[in-house]
Amino acid sequence: MKLKTLVILMMTLLLAFSFNFDIANANSFKEVKIVNSSSTVYEKPDTNSKVLGTVEKGTFVTLISQNQNAFSRITYLNSESKIIDGYISDSVLEDAQYTIKIASSKSGLVVKEMPSLKAKTVATLQNKMVVKDFGSVGDGWSFVQYGNVIGYAATNFMSTSKPTTKYVVSNLVVRNIASPSGANVGELYKNEAVSVHSTIAGWSYISTSTYEGYVVDSYLSTKNPNATNSKPSSSSNSNSSNSSNSGKSYYKNCTELRKDYPNGVGAGHPAYDSKHDRDKDGWACER
């Protein structure tokens, strides 16, 4: 096994075991919701059961499960800083909007159970990990999520994402955490363009118009498969000059073609032949 591959494997395993079992086994995926109107929380999915409290409009809640007599099981932090686990009507829950942020602290991004330094630590996320920031809850804290890690993190320990574009080399699965055990949230197809927000331990966090999540970075490339004439202008100028000196449009091999076109030719050129374009990048016989 190559050293680079071994290092990536070890780092991936480190990521997978950095959290507790519930987080790493992310197939039971939790979601963050927001309450659209004040509503009663019950001990069971039944309005005749014990009332645990009232959750106010605009409160972030963690969705544990749903579709139980039109109720959803949630957890949330009440006004007395207590975590309530109960049931609420499905109709009052909406998807919470978020911003993609990057953990920017070298020592890691600490996620707390409550917005307080004294609160229990849920997890410590490594530098460059991506989190969903659902917004400020005051006093320098934000409500965040990474896989099943949901809690509060210091707002100034996160930075705004500056994504770059890459292309899918072959079909691959998108997961909700940087681990093979992560929940499958979708699939990308060959040559599809994605926005890469961060890369860590061989995993890249990507987004498209349809999906967001982690993919194995080795299945991504910076080379645009749809580019046909992406070579430097100097090559184009050279080819244009050479073209005026030769009327040939067929060449047996690259050795012959380079006699007239030293830098190769693009897909739109009369001398272009796909058999000379071995890497299929739209440019034949490049040096």
Q: Could you explain the architecture of this structure?
A:
- The chain is built from 4 helices and 23 strands.
- It folds into 4 domains: about 5-95, SH3 type barrels; about 100-160, SH3 Domains (SH3 type barrels), CATH 2.30.30; about 165-220, SH3 type barrels (Roll), CATH 2.30.30.40; about 235-285, no CATH class.
- The two termini are about 30 Å apart.
- The strands form 7 sheets. A 5-stranded antiparallel sheet has the order 6-5-4-1-7, with no helix packed on it.
- With about 290 residues, the protein is mainly β.
Can you describe this structure in just a few lines?
The protein has helices at residues 3-16, 21-24, 233-243, 254-260; strands spanning 31-35, 39-42, 51-55, 60-68, 71-77, 83-89, 93-95, 99-103, 109-112, 121-125, 130-138, 141-146, 149-154, 158-160, 164-168, 172-175, 184-188, 193-200, 203-207, 212-216, 220-221, 265-266, 283-284. The protein has 287 residues and is mainly beta.
